[in-house]
Design a protein that fits this description.
The complex is a heterodimer of chains A (about 90) and B (about 425). Chain A is of the alpha+beta class. Chain A has a single domain, classed as Ubiquitin-like (UB roll) (Roll). Helices cover about 20% and strands about 25% of the residues of chain A. Chain A has helices at about 30-40, 40-45; strands at about 5, 20-25, 55-60, 65, 80-85. A five-stranded mixed beta sheet of chain A has the order 2-1-5-3-4, with helices on one face. With about 425 residues, chain B is an alpha/beta fold. Chain B folds into two domains: about 90-405, Rossmann fold (3-Layer(aba) Sandwich); about 405-435, no CATH class. Chain B contains 15 helices and 13 strands. In chain B, the strands form three sheets. A six-stranded mixed beta sheet of chain B has the order 4-5-13-10-11-12, with helices on both faces. Chain B has a four-stranded parallel beta sheet with strand order 8-7-6-9. In chain B, strands 2-1-3 form a three-stranded antiparallel beta sheet. In chain B, strand 10 (about 245-250), helix 10 (about 255-270) and strand 11 form a beta-alpha-beta unit. In chain B, helix 3 crosses helix 13 (about 340-355), helix 10 (about 255-270) crosses helix 12 and helix 11 crosses helix 12.
Chain lengths: ~90, ~425
């Protein structure tokens, strides 16, 4: 069983308009590589030149912000839900 | 609820428009003025870009003064094309010279911008919502939505009702009763989410991925946030077309703070006021102070927190515009401070007892921070200081219950009154409730 990924609107052009995906990976970092393999170009949108997540993107694992977990090393298990959310919203 | 148009008509180019499109605040990429809020390349926030040459040609103090007594007197500075924007009397709230509070604090020229009496729902959110829903209508949306700590839900529901738009709002399930009722009354769909505002906001962003609604603080956010500029414009106009020396405002997402700054800058750019340095100071509650922490620790990123404070309306643990707020406080030689819940309650009472203004917890936070800054010598007593009060105390009565005493209950007899009056003069107010005369 794979990990479910919720894709924000600005990335859906790269995912053939899919708002949800099934993907593999044992951590957020691995998931990003796996997404890049399926949808070339997506990593450059998510990460800067140093491979760090861009500061205006938030990742959540099962509704928890990965900054409260282990960041890009946060482990994933099959059935987890990963949500990619633009940081700029609300207020 | 009627399903909104999933593909709104994006009519971006209008001859009446003074704005030219959207521009990424980070990388500068340009976009049409559609219902989008983040850059596709770097996810940076999109901001409305204006044609300032055109604004200089068409706007004068006189044209503004001849306009309506509402935020729409500044229409050329707002990202709408309608000749008939949604005008429910929002804006032009009092700028009150607060002499008694100033004396108590030990400063000389203090003004309160009182959005506790903004129309129609008694908070500054009516400004941003009036703009967002006008733009939503122009873009063809028939359903509007928002993630809210309460005030925004009140405002979106009320103004959507006025405009005949369907409305679905998302709020944390533990909000104050007044804020929940003040939304339900207008008849929207209300989703009370088990979780804090940041969780509500994330859920709402996920809903926005698949529902073609106009989310005022998500896909309409570039337009929505521009409404806060009117808090800058009005203060400048009400001070006699000049800028203050120092402003103090509450910080939740940081958007309001950055837009007051932008408002002042635009008035300077168009020649409506003289340029001068204005210090920007921000207020947070200790139980949710990620922006104050970044400011103090001199960081250029915000570490999110899980909020725990009575100041629910500003309890955003993951503030979208936090880094920009820090930047403005730094470059204007301002400060960002935080205060605890007890100080917030005391400050609500202080403002009420000195100026007759009953504000909610966000206002209490701002007044408490003002007091702290004065005591620390961080506000020059000679400065013209403007404090932004953004919400009404009747909506957060829970915060002061048990802290303001009870009325005397008396028989309808003169001697009962005289005895009660005597006691009122000898007892502390909090002891009143224990007295039956």
């Amino acid at each position: 069983m794979a990990v479910k990924v919720l894709v924000p609107t600005p990335l859906q052009k790269l995912t053939q308009d899919q708002a949800t995906l099934e993907c593999e990976g044992n951590s957020i970092a691995e998931l990003i590589e796996s997404l890049e393999h399926s949808f070339p170009g997506i990593k450059a949108r998510l990460c800067d030149e140093q491979g760090q997540l861009r500061r205006f993107i938030n990742f959540y694992v099962n509704s928890e912000d990965i900054r409260f977990l282990e960041g890009q090393n946060t482990p994933l298990t099959p059935g987890d839900e990963v949500s990619i959310v633009p940081a700029v919203a609300g207020g | 609820m009627t399903q909104a148009a999933t593909s709104p008509t994006h009519s971006a180019v209008h001859s009446a428009a003074t704005f030219t499109g959207l521009k990424c605040k980070e990388c500068g990429a340009e976009y049409e003025a559609k219902a989008i809020h983040v850059c596709e390349l770097c996810f940076g926030p999109l901001e409305v870009a204006y044609d300032y040459d055109r604004l200089r040609q068409i706007v004068t103090r006189e044209t503004i003064q001849a306009g309506p007594h509402s935020i729409w007197r500044y229409r050329p500075f707002l990202p709408v094309t309608s000749q008939n924007p949604i005008d429910v009397g929002t804006g032009m709230t009092p700028l009150v010279q607060a002499n008694r509070l100033a004396r108590q604090l030990g400063i000389k020229r203090l003004f309160i911008k009182n959005d506790a009496v903004n129309m129609p729902t008694l908070s500054f959110k009516d400004r941003v919502v009036s703009v967002a829903l006008t733009r939503a209508r122009e873009l063809g949306f028939t359903t509007v939505s928002c993630a809210s700590t309460g005030n925004l839900a009140n405002s979106t529901a009320a103004i959507a009702a006025h405009a005949g738009l369907d409305c679905c709002v998302f709020i944390p399930s533990d909000l104050e009763a007044g804020k929940v009722m003040g939304t339900l009354i207008y008849g929207p769909t209300v989703m009370a989410v088990h979780g804090n505002y940041d969780q509500v906001n994330r859920l709402c962003s996920e809903v926005a991925n698949s529902h073609g609604w106009g989310f005022v603080n998500i896909n309409l956010r570039p337009y929505y946030s521009e409404g806060s500029k009117t808090l800058g414009f009005e203060v400048a106009e009400q001070l006699g077309w000049q800028l203050p020396d120092h402003i103090v405002a509450p910080l939740a997402s940081g958007s309001l703070f950055t837009k007051i700054y932008k408002g002042f800058q635009e008035f300077v750019k168009v020649g409506l006021v003289d340029d001068k340095p204005v210090r920007f100071s921000g207020a947070q509650a200790e139980g949710c102070s990620p922006i104050a922490k970044a400011f103090k620790e001199n960081q250029d990123f915000i570490t999110p927190v899980k909020p725990n404070t009575i100041a629910k309306s500003i309890a955003i643990g993951n503030p979208a515009d936090g880094v920009y707020a820090v930047d403005i406080a730094r470059k204007t030689n301002g400060n960002i401070e935080s205060v605890n819940d007890a100080e917030i309650v005391e400050a609500i009472k202080l403002l009420a007892e000195t100026e007759g203004i009953f504000t909610e917890t966000a206002g209490g936070t701002t007044i408490a921070v003002l007091k702290k800054l004065v005591e620390a010598g961080k506000i020059n007593p000679e400065e013209t200081t403007v404090v932004y009060i953004t919400g009404n105390g009747l909506k957060t009565q829970e915060a002061v219950q048990g802290c303001i005493g009870e009325p005397f209950t008396i028989e309808p007899k003169l001697d009962a009154f005289e005895r009660a009056l005597e006691r009122s003069r000898t007892l502390g107010r909090l002891e009143w409730q224990q007295v039956m005369v």
